[in-house]
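Hi W.,

Here's what went into the run:
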Amino acid sequence: MLKEQLKEVERRIQAACDRAGRKREEVTLIAVSKTKPVSMIEETYQLGIHVYGENKVQELTEKYEILPKDIEWHMIGHLQTNKVKYIVGKTALIHSVDSLKLAETIEKEAAKKNCIQDILVEVNVAQEESKFGLKVDEVIPFIEKISQFQHICVKGLMTIAPFVENPDDNRPVFANLHKLSVDIMNKNIDNVNVSILSMGMTNDYEVAIEEGATMVRVGTGIFGARNYQI
Ligand SMILES: *Cc1c(COP(=O)(O)O)cnc(C)c1O
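Here's what came out:
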């Protein structure tokens, strides 16, 4: 079952790349394994998927301990400052940096561990009340500030688009995040290269790829529906 679903996602990613005139290598598939058991990840790992996204610190660190060390873990969920210490050094990329306080905490923890933590800035492009993330016009001043930090490297932007029936409705959201990244690039801020655009989930990753996504975060499409009662 996992094999077929993965194949279907892969087929659709390729088709979206073809439509957009992009190369498949430009897009990284992040398999969002939250709530899913280690056994399922072992299965997709065997099928060649080595990049996983989790949204809870405890779940990420538990899976990190058990699973092969060449897995690349991405923290995609809202991150509380008091939990930063558990994931710095274990996470390839933190997608959800949305406050100075959080950035300062990551900086401090990465300095302690003598590493550089790659991060994305989360942007609430659609301005949904319920969502985390900076407003579009807050992003450049924020990046200018944290670009001075020695142990953080800003690699790009992330957004969580609204849930919509028709994925095409999210096209402007993705296009706006892309445009914002171009504006930031044009500022030539030292130490900042916002080449990663993390956008698109099961419902809308094809549209996101057409609009320039370089990372898509796909959970349900690979692992099936989540059961939060477990
Ligand atoms: C759960 C989650 C996803 C994956 O959602 P699906 O609709 O299951 O693909 C992607 N991004 C974030 C931030 C998530 O929390």
